[in-house]
Amino acid sequence: MPEPGKMASVINCLLILTLLASCSAKTSAEDMDKETQNISSWVATANMVGDAWIRDVVPNKYAEQTLKKAQQELQKEKEKIDEIKLSKDVSEDDKSILLAEVLKLGNKTEEISRAVAQKNRSAVRQKLIELAAEKRSLNKLRKVAGQTNE
């Protein structure tokens, strides 16, 4: 029989390994929800910057750089979603629909950035309305999937 001190160490190691395994065992739905929250955050950033630019509260360069960064981050989120391994809680259709929505949001953000570069306030205003509609679609997808942390 092993010594009591060694047995306690072995038990502690097993408990730590079990805890680590349970903490890192995220489901596909949890991964997708995390990425969707990140996407919502970047869309909100694009919206705030576009709105501030229309009101002439932020300089052109700042708006252009922030919108470009938001578009890049949306692309990164799309890539992360694409890499999520499917499981019983997420279907290929769910993933495809979300990927298509992220693509639309990224494209709208890029269009807003171009309109800012052209100093076209009416185009930015229109694109912000379209971006808001796409974000509502994203929120509906989250509610349908039961991902309502927002």
DSSP strand tally: 0
- Oligomeric state, counting identical vs distinct chains: single chain
Tally of separate domains:
1
Unreliable stretches (pLDDT < 50, length at least 5) are 21-25
The average pLDDT value, as a whole number, equals: 83
- How much helix is in the residues? over 70%
**Rg:** 21 Å
Any guess at the CATH architecture? Up-down Bundle
Distance between the termini: 54 Å
> In CATH, what is the class?
Mainly Alpha
Instruction: Give the CA-based shape.
Output: elongated
What proportion strand? under 5%
Number of discrete helical segments:
5
Topology, please?
Layout: H1 4-24, H2 28-54, H3 60-83, H4 92-117, H5 121-144
What are the salient characteristics of this protein?
5 helices, Four Helix Bundle (Hemerythrin (Met), subunit A), 81% helix, mainly alpha, 150 residues, single chain
Describe this structure as you would to a colleague.
By secondary structure, this protein is mostly helical. It has one domain (27-144): Four Helix Bundle (Hemerythrin (Met), subunit A). The protein is built from five helices and no strands. The chain has helices at 4-24, 28-54, 60-83, 92-117, 121-144. Helix 2 (28-54) packs antiparallel against helix 3 (60-83), helix 2 (28-54) packs parallel to helix 4 and helix 3 runs antiparallel to helix 4. The longest helix is centred in the N-terminal third of the chain and has 27 residues, at 28-54.
